[in-house]
Design brief:
Blueprint lengths: L3 H17 L5 H16 L8 H8 L9 H18 L28 H12 L8 H15 L3 H5 L6 E2 L4 E4 L8 E4 L2 H16 L25 H15 L14 H17 L3 H12 L4 H10 L1 H18 L5
Antiparallel strand pairs: 1-2, 2-3
Helix pairs in contact: 1-2, 2-4, 3-4, 5-6, 6-8, 6-10, 11-12
Length: 325
Amino acid sequence: MSTSTSLQRFVEHYLTERRRLGFALRSEGYALRSFARHVQAVDHRGALNEEVMTDWARRDSHASEDPRTWARRLKRLRSFTRWLQQFEPRTEVPDEAIFGRLPERQAPHIYNEREIVDLLAAARRLGPAPGLRGVVYETLFGLLASTGLRISEALALRNYDVDLRRGMLTVERTKFAKSRQVPMHPSTVEALRRYRWMRDLAGASAQDDAPFFVGTRGQRRGLPLNTHHVERVFAALRKQLGWRNRGTHHAPRIHDLRHTFIVRRIVLWQAQGIDIDQSMLSLSTYVGHAMVTNTYWYLSAVPELMSLAAQRFASFSLQTEAPDA
């Protein structure tokens, strides 16, 4: 690598190329730009090697001492360095085992019904009162739990995307540049109708292209909700509710509402005797997975499903066992 400036250009070229394929790359983009700044700061010369990469990985913004954090940061460089080799053949690709291997996916926290009810009730009580803030977050978290939307998809909704007459959401070109329509349960439609009535009464814009979920305080009033602010509110509610973490992430997450939606649907199908293989493609399409294999992963990732599968197998074994002679 001749100069740090050329590395910055390669980073932007890579991000532009990947985004044209439909990848959002928000966290990856942040990491790669951070890495380019680090290379410049340490005045690294020559081809990119594992030494400069691991040095950057150890310097996360929270000064973490956890090798798993370093491994996750280093993993964000792997696809980029493979891509970069076509232009800079001497570029090294960091080995997966430098800080110890990470599992490809961590087990999510699957919410039970009581936890979701408590979350919505706690969100409803958010102040100041009287005000719109509580109903905004109650409706947002309820929509995520009842449809399995990604948080980014819900926050990107505009008024014209929410058809309450037909009970249909239109999710525009999100992850993997795909658009889809999401039918909603009548109870979800009614909750959104109530929210929109209260939002419009509070003076938020009812224009078709206005954001559906709006900020309620300060300079963010009437503007689209910000993911960072939503995460912060959720973290405060999580602490207040004192949930016991049943996943392998650091704590229950907003994204786990999506995992919960998928798992509960599969468990319901199991209980109803529905052929899951026949139905999985429709579920994968509904939640916006690019490949049905991404949805199948939930069959092996969650203890509830594994336990159910084990029970059904045990029952099947008892039925097929040959009687003793």
